[in-house]
Every structure is written in structure tokens, then in C-alpha cells.
UniProtKB/TrEMBL annotation:
SUPFAM superfamilies: (Trans)glycosidases
Domain of life: Bacteria
InterPro entries, sorted: GH, GH_1_N_CS, Glyco_hydro_1, Glyco_hydro_1_AS
Native source organism of the sequence: [Eubacterium] hominis
Family note: Belongs to the glycosyl hydrolase 1 family.
Catalytic residues of the enzyme: E382
Protein's UniProt name: Glycoside hydrolase family 1 protein
GO molecular function: beta-glucosidase activity
Recorded GO CC terms: cytosol
């Protein structure tokens, strides 16, 4: 749509940044913390860039007051962070660790002191390894009960101060990389039946948790954060338009329809059943999913890139078990599902060094699609650029590429709001530099440079503000008017 004048961002708009416990906290075995699946997975040779781990990360565990003071200086209105299950219930289903609760009490209270709204992610991929050892983790229905007990512990302890909750971070990512490509825990390759069963267990954990939160705090805002990668049909051939429809049902709506409607897309289920994949459900599951969907307050969106979609013949390319972790542009491989779709490189878009397309208009596409399909408010829970940043003399970091990236996306987000999308918040990924999961510390996302490389023993961990820090500070101060 075209509008002669923009209404801009709402006065109540929550400008923020996001992080995840494993990627920033460190203190891997302090104060009673248990071992997570990621603590163990990163020690498998070849899984991460230069064998990097989150043992130290950027030491947010000991430096959170310094980091939150910098957030306040930048003017953040909200800080989205995750809680490590292993700090609250170290073995996943045993005794609650009071020191873990106290740590997050301190983070929440520090945010509130500065007028920063805490936005809590219940699960950002770091499951207690003990649950994997006990019964297979997400593969076993028992995980639903243990997850809901963990989530309820958080609601009861922090719910008086936390008004925004995200149950799951990128369920589509941790399940596909865990059970299809082998790049995340538990490292399984093309276990399709278990992939879909695991997703159902995660959906039930999400649904029951929503119900438990709303019992206790009916006015709390809750949703899940979905890694949304909109697809463009390669051209106007009908077969490619149908390939895009298949892609949407299997790669996007398969999750968002559950969050918003409490059901799976019919075409996706028919396709799975035709391939001998039947999701095992208990008698009340569909009822519980629908009850939770009726209580959802927003759709969380982690937006980074779009995909071009083309028909993939039955003997075409499959999923890749490799990913660009080096930052050497042009090393990513084409992938797809034979007989349905593939994702060729889009010649109309620039790419990052990690081969992610740069498509600011895609964030507007996300919002428009969610608004039309689900009529839900939207929280942009992640959006950012991973890049090679350089610490120069006098400890300055010039990152005009990050400023350009974020500014272009915010201009499109403003247009989405003009289009009628109800967007509540925008959280960049991330505030400080952090561990980029498989990519080590070289792939930097933050407004604040953390002085460390892959080697923990040489890490100084000093914080330095990048040019983008001051840019975002001004964006927040003017509520986006100076874009």
C-alpha cells in the first residue's frame, strides 16, 4: 500500500534488544547450574567454528549490571532474554535451585530499576542434558510434563514483574537442525518421523504452559517466537506458485497455525500421512492446542531473511547437512524437498558473509501475512546483522553496514504499521556481541563490542560502544522519526 504520510511508530512502542542465556551468560557450572544439551554438544569435534563453547561466553553472568546500564544509556524500552532451564532445575525435573532464581531476580529488578520492560523467553534451546539421558529429551512425551513444571516455576516466581512471555524460541529451527540436518542437539540426520513427533511434544509444552500462565496472570502477554522466512515464487509459472504454497504449509504455517489456531495445516498433514508419518496425539491434545491458541496475545517473529522458491523434481536436491560457519560468502549449498520445492539463490538480493539474504521488505511481508492470516499483534523478537566488526584505535568500532541494515528494516516495519499491522515491539539481535551458536565469536551482532575472540584464555571481555549504539540511541529517543 502507498500512504502519502506515515503515522510512525506508536508512542507505546517497545524498542529493545534480545539475547539467549547460553550465548551470553557463561558461568557454565557456577551456583548449582546443571549441564545443558549445548554444553555437551559443542564438545563434539567439528560441530562449532574453532570448537567454541559457551563456557565463558561474554560473561554476562558476572557483568549483567554493566550490560543493563548500557541498555539504559541506549534508551531501551524492553530487554528480551532467556532463562536457562539448567539454572532453575539443574537436572530438568528435580529440586529447584534458589541461586538460579536469585540470578534472574537480579536481572529483572535491574531492568525495572531503569524502566526497561523485561521480556522473558522460557526456552531458547538449552535443555538439561539430564533429560536427554533420562528418556531422550524432546523425543519422549514426558518432556511436556517436565517443561510445564519448569515454565510454571518461572510464572509463579517472576510473574509479578514480568508481563511479556515467550514460550519457545524458533521451534522450527531447533527441531529441524536437531533431527533433520544434525547441526544442533541431538545431532540426528533426516529422522523425519521423530522430527514431527518432537514438534508435537514442543507444541503441547507450549500450549499447556500458556494455560498455566493465564490461570495465574490473565493479563500477562504471551506468544511464541517463530523464525519466519517468507518465500517468493521463483517466477509466474503455476508449478512454482504451488511450490511456494507447499513451502509455506511445511515451513511456516505448520508452526504458526498451531500457535494461532491450535491446528496443523490440512495439506501438510495429508502430505505427511502419504509418506507414512502419523503424529501421535493424546485424546485431549487438539482441545488443549485450541484453548491455548485462543489465549495467545501476539505472534513473535525472528526475521533475518527471505527465500526464493522453485519446484523441485522428485530426483532433485535434498536438505543439506552443512552450513556456512566460516563467513566465507558463497559457500552455502542449495537445498529443498524432492517433489515439492527447492530454494535457489535469489539474484535480486545481496547476501551477508554467511550467505543470508538481505531483504528489508521481507519484514513487512511477515507482518502483512500474519495480520491477514491471524489478525494478531506482532512482536519482532529478533532482527539483526551478523558481521565481521573491527576494533580500531581508541577502541572505536565503525559499523555503517549494520546501521544501514537496521535502518532499512525499520523503514519497512514503519510501512507495515501504516498498512494496519499492530506491531508492539522491535528487538534487535543483539545488544552485546555474543556466541553465535555454531559460528563462534567472529560473527558479531551487537551494538556493544565485546573484546574476545574464539580463545577463552585470551578474552578481555571489555565492552565498547559501536557507532550503531549511538544510532539506535537516537532512533529510540525520536521514536523512529529520524530514520
Amino acid at each position: 500500500m502507498y500512504f502519502k504520510e506515515s503515522n510512525g511508530f506508536p508512542e507505546t512502542f517497545l524498542w529493545g534488544s534480545a539475547s539467549a542465556a547460553y550465548q551470553i551468560e557463561g558461568a557454565a557450572s557456577e551456583d548449582g547450574k546443571g549441564v545443558s544439551n549445548w554444553d555437551q554438544f559443542v564438545r563434539i569435534p567439528g560441530k562449532t567454528f574453532k570448537a567454541t563453547t559457551g563456557d565463558l561466553a561474554v560473561d554476562h553472568y558476572h557483568r549483567f549490571k554493566e550490560d543493563i546500564a548500557l541498555m539504559a544509556e541506549a534508551g531501551l524500552k524492553t530487554y528480551r532474554f532467556s532463562i536457562a532451564w539448567t539454572r532453575i532445575i539443574p537436572d530438568g525435573n528435580g529440586e529447584v535451585n534458589e541461586k538460579g532464581l536469585a540470578f534472574y531476580d537480579a536481572i529483572i529488578d535491574e531492568c525495572i530499576k531503569y524502566g526497561i520492560e523485561p521480556m522473558v523467553t522460557v526456552y531458547h534451546w538449552d535443555m538439561p542434558q539430564a533429560l536427554q539421558d533420562q528418556y531422550g529429551g524432546w523425543e519422549n512425551r514426558q518432556i511436556v510434563k517436565d517443561y510445564v513444571r519448569y515454565a510454571t516455576t518461572l510464572f509463579e516466581h517472576f510473574g509479578d514483574r514480568v508481563h511479556y512471555w515467550i514460550t519457545m524460541n524458533e521451534q522450527n529451527v531447533f527441531t529441524s537442525l536437531g533431527w533433520l540436518t544434525g547441526m544442533h542437539p541431538p545431532g540426528k540426520v533426516m529422522d523425519q518421523k521423530m522430527f514431527y513427533q518432537v514438534n508435537h511434544h514442543a507444541n503441547m509444552a507450549h500450549a499447556y504452559s500458556v494455560l498455566e500462565l493465564k490461570k495465574r496472570y490473565p493479563d500477562a502477554h504471551v506468544g511464541a517466537s517463530f523464525a519466519y522466512t517468507p518465500g517468493y515464487a521463483w517466477d509466474c509459472k503455476p508449478i512454482n506458485a504451488m511450490a511456494k504454497a507447499d513451502y509455506d504449509d511445511l515451513q511456516n504455517y505448520f508452526w504458526m497455525d498451531v500457535y494461532a489456531y491450535g491446528r496443523y495445516p490440512k495439506a501438510a498433514i495429508r502430505y505427511l500421512e502419504s509418506n507414512g508419518i502419523h503424529i501421535q496425539m493424546e485424546a485431549e491434545d487438539q482441545k488443549i492446542m485450541k484453548q491455548a491458541a485462543a489465549l495467545i496475545d501476539f505472534m513473535g517473529v525472528n526475521y533475518y531473511q527471505t527465500a526464493a522458491i522453485e519446484y523441485n523434481p522428485i530426483d532433485g536436491v535434498g536438505m543439506s547437512t552443512e552450513v556456512n560457519t566460516t563467513g566465507k560468502k558463497g559457500t552455502a549449498k542449495e537445498e529443498g524437498i524432492p517433489g515439492l520445492y527447492k530454494k535457489p539463490s535469489n539474484p535480486y538480493l545481496e547476501k551477508t558473509d554467511w550467505d543470508w539474504t538481505i531483504d528489508p521488505m521481507g519484514i513487512r511481508m511477515c507482518c502483512r501475512d500474519i495480520t491477514s492470516r491471524y489478525d494478531l499483534p506482532i512482536v519482532i523478537s529478533e532482527n539483526g546483522l551478523g558481521a565481521f566488526d573491527k576494533l580500531e584505535e581508541d577502541n572505536v568500532i565503525h559499523d555503517p553496514y549494520r546501521i544501514a541494515f537496521l535502518e532499512a528494516h525499520l523503514k519497512e516495519l514503519k510501512k507495515a504499521i501504516d498498512d494496519g499491522c499492530d506491531v508492539w515491539a522491535y528487538c534487535t539481535w543483539s545488544f552485546t556481541d555474543l556466541l553465535s551458536w555454531l559460528n563462534g565469536y567472529q560473527k558479531r551482532y551487537g551494538f556493544v563490542y565485546v573484546d574476545r575472540e574464539e580463545d577463552d584464555t585470551t578474552a578481555k571481555l571489555n565492552r565498547y560502544k559501536k557507532d550503531s549504539f549511538y544510532w539506535y540511541q537516537n532512533v529510540i529517543k525520536t521514536n523512529g522519526k529520524d530514520l
